[in-house]
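G., the chain you wanted modeled:
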Amino acid sequence: MNAPLRRVGVVVMILFGLLFANLNWVQAYKADEYRTSDYNGRVQVAEYDRQRGNIEAAGKALATSKATDGELKYQRVYPNNDIYAHVLGYKPVNGAASGIEKSENEFLAGNSDQLFADRVRDLFTGNHTAGGNVLLSLSRRAQETTYRELANNRVNVKKGAAVAIDPKTGAIQALVSMPSFDPNPLVSPDTEAAGAAFRSLEENKNGPLKNRALSEVLPPGSTFKVIDAAAALESGLTTSSNIPAGPSYTAPTSGTPIRNAHPSICPESQVTLTDALTESCNTGFAQLAVRLGAETIKKKARDFGFEDESLSVGRLTGSGLPVAASRTGEIKNPDGGEDKAALAQSAIGQNNVRMTPLQGAMIAAAVANGGSQMRPYLVQQLLGPDRTTIHYTADPRVLRQPVTTQVARDLQAMMRSVVENGTGTNARISGYTVGGKTGTAQAGETSDDHGWFIGFVMKDGQPISAVAVMLESAGSGGSAEATRIAGQIMKAVIADRGGK
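Predicted structure as tokens:
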């Protein structure tokens, strides 16, 4: 064989070797990814030969499948339209799933290893046994109340979110993002119509597909003062300790003074820590933070869950809906030193501080639960197609311990004072102990302020619910309305448990 032919032969052998290696790599490492891809049309059609399992809460189907006469034997249906959309997500025929439909897709579709016995049985019987069923932790009454109150808020805002959590277990009782959307058009077997419906939602300037409860991070305003107060208590202060206050405070190196929302708020030179939280004294907490230092405030925020990039909400043992990390920002000068002006602003939930509504609810839940912050979850149980075989049951677990039991008790007392005597009176519930903190956060020169409330409700010393409500660009009265809505959500949780 002459030299040119040998060279060609070598090249061909190398190419066949590379092709063989690639084939094995695809089969060994990429096959499952391609098989489960949202864009694998053949697998998608085959998937609709089997009825998809239900997603349920409190005995009611929130997502189910109905038989059709078309090529796809079943169509996904969401009976409650907008109310549960950001929790459930959607499972389109041609496209990417979202929400619980995505995180529990294999179990709902019947392809999970947990349902292996059912699939083996189908090989012998020729049946197409339905997928598994996912039971959520949601309180239907609380969820529907949250949706209704947000949609009909009294300050006429179009964007916001609310989350309610059981402080003792971490079970999410309600999760609503506003505006919401109807997932039914997105799962139409008419893929062109479904695509058009998706594009319409995606182009909507109000962002209805965005899950603001989990993925929106906004300045939390004075709700962040709960973290300041926790750091202060751990530094040795008590609820009755005096801190500097006054009508105005200018941090070192800053020419911009911090003032209170109204001249009647803590005009005196000193106030107690409890009064500072009750009145929402900006000057008091700004000076307190500068005294404690940026690292102390940032550490306490991390203790409560800020900077956590790993959290998701679904099963306790697996993936779920992604959660954006809440942040405090660097709070540093260009030379790396502490920026006291930025720290003073950060102490009142401004500057670069950003928080999700879920994080706000988790802060309140940890305080109500004696300092233990439970890992939040949505999936309560997984049932097999026969509805008798239990494949998973949530086993609540502590996520972190942000404060000691004593500090938690002190914070409870201070937050109760906010509701009983201060800015949070709209959250009062007769016969129950309610604590909380309001927040008004500046959103820029051209936007109205955001309105916040985080809080909890207890009975006989036992926590029942912790809630965060955020009304985006709500302007004047936003925090008062967020507080009122939170009270209605907590009442719904109480009623769902048989209380009054």
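The domain at 215-380+398-496 is CATH 3.40.710.10 (Beta-lactamase).

Shout if anything looks off.
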